[in-house]
Amino acid sequence: MPIFARSCLAGEPLTIYGSGAQTRSFTSVHDVVHANLLAAEAARAGRQAFNCASGIAVSIKQLADFVLAETGSAHAIDYAPARAGDIERFAVDNTKLARLGLQFDTDWRGMVRDVVAWSARSPSGATVGH
Q: Which residues of the chain are modeled with pLDDT < 70?
């Protein structure tokens, strides 16, 4: 997300490796912090491992199209060969965290807007943790 935002804001084209049909689950940094606090404070969490991801599936092409629209970029998407070992479908079971009371923010478009706004204000090109 931040790489796409910075590229668009810099007037550069976006590069998608592979077809763009690969999916990812974007998770708000706020949800990650909340998940850690819940796991640390819940006695029933014990020493378990938890999957911390929103569970929504967004294709890389969907993400790129939305970032282009949000930034007003007129650039096209450049496609490059898929990278070796790239994951086609990222799926996660977050029910253990849901049982602790975490409700993930599934508004990935809102997360993109936040990252774009933050990237536009950041003179160093640093990224927000989304």
A: 123-130
